[in-house]
Amino acid sequence: xxxxxxxxxxxxxxxxxxxxxxxxxxxxxxxxxxxxxxxxxxxxxxxxxxxxxxxxxxxxxxxxxxxxxxxxxxxxxxxxxxxxxxxxxxxxxxxxxxxxxxxxxxxxxxxxxxxxxxxxxxxxxxxxxxxxxxxxxxxxxxxxxxxxxxxxxxxxxxxxxxxxxxxxxxxxxxxxxxxxxxxxxxxxxxxxxxxxxxxxxxxxxxxxxxxxxxxxxxxxxxxxxxxxxxxxxxxxxxxxxxxxxxxxxxxxxxxxxxxxxxxxxxxxxxxxxxxxxxxxxxxxxxxxxxxxxxxxxxxxxxxxxxxxxxxxxxxxxxxxxxxxxxxxxxxxxxxxxxxxxxxxxxxxxxxxxxxxxxxxxxxxxxxxxxxxxxxxxxxxxxxxxxxxxxxxxxxxxxxxxxxxxxxxxxxxxxxxxxxxxxxxxxxxxxxxxxxxxxxx
Length: 440
Fold this sequence. Notes:
The protein is α/β, with parallel strands linked by helices. The protein folds into 3 domains: 32-128, Alpha-helical ferredoxin (Fumarate Reductase Iron-sulfur Protein, Chain B, domain 2), CATH 1.10.1060; 143-238 and 377-439, 3-Layer(bba) Sandwich (FAD/NAD(P)-binding domain); 240-374, 3-Layer(bba) Sandwich (FAD/NAD(P)-binding domain). The protein has 17 helices and 20 strands. The chain has helices at 16-22, 32-39, 49-53, 60-68, 72-82, 86-92, 99-102, 104-109, 115-128, 151-162, 179-182, 193-201, 221-227, 255-264, 284-296, 316-324, 420-439, and strands spanning 5-6, 9-11, 143-147, 166-171, 207-211, 230-233, 239-240, 252-254, 272-274, 276-280, 300-305, 328-331, 333-339, 342-351, 354-365, 368-371, 375-376, 388-389, 392-393, 406-408. It has a 5-stranded parallel beta sheet, with helices on one face. The chain has a 5-stranded parallel beta sheet with strand order 8-16-10-11-12. A hairpin with a 2-residue loop joins β14 and β15. α2 packs across α9 (115-128), α10 packs parallel to α17 (420-439) and α15 packs parallel to α16. The longest helix is centred in the C-terminal third of the chain and has 20 residues, at 420-439. It is globular. The chain starts with a strand and ends with a helix.
């Protein structure tokens, strides 16, 4: 065990062998035989409610039939034509609340077709061959700036490149990938899949990625508008909401920073973790932080959410994964202050005027506290005349902003759910709008 200690937070709580096992693929891929069996369960519905439930509108019955017919590569092209990050979405998309929830098998039997796993089988088969099924159109001579190399920006860049435009993607971090690289639990995306997918996507050609350059610090929106024919903003959300907790010290950290550090760690045994960990929040980030704390060796991990468990934005599958990993979920409690032994909470209840505290408090002992209560964007700072609403960029249905040559999508834009698959759809659709505007 490491000798470096800070308030009970210790590195190397469990052996390297246990860490390797804990952080292996949580949802192993289907074999070819398993994929055929799973595909055979599809009814190939005429009206296909699963398609309507998919934010990128993948033709799910078609790609499953292609797998059934022995053409996973063809199935992959069907998927990727709508969702160029279909491989990652197959791993992290909450299919249980989207396509699989809408599946007729789910309604009839309570057991949907395993759409997510079949999508992964198809896309992995194609990517392992190194093929890129799309080619560029004739060069248009236009050049577009994409700010942010996350799901929205990458999807936008790829579709613009397909149309023959040149694209420069600028990102503040050292690696491209955005949320896929820095914000998702590592047991969902093993073997450095996020970077492998980016490298595969770039095979379309016409896309250059520049890292380590941030909007608002290294350049302004006005500057890139002058240099490019169009601009797409897809930089996600860089800041975190303030918990407003009294008595905060170095035991209290942002969950997103913890996950990013873990994702970039070369040796998990060097990561310090508390014996007793509390995570405040109710979304996917809270679950990812809590489960990974447990996998690093924390003995007692509790997620605390201010409302009922049915109001948590993390899906039932994610919640079940947390509890099966040994994480406790405690609801109807909000933090009041950090104390010497942990965090003091106040019980809450729903009333006619909304959520309110009851006045009754309790203390959860904790060496380490992670806050996962949502994110915001910190980089505007008067840099732009874009219209904002609730801290996000106002856009129309095509992703157009209040500026005629600027589009936006993903988490930084006001609109859909903060999901990878939604960001991909918004980036793709904005690219189509940009292409129509440039080619008019």
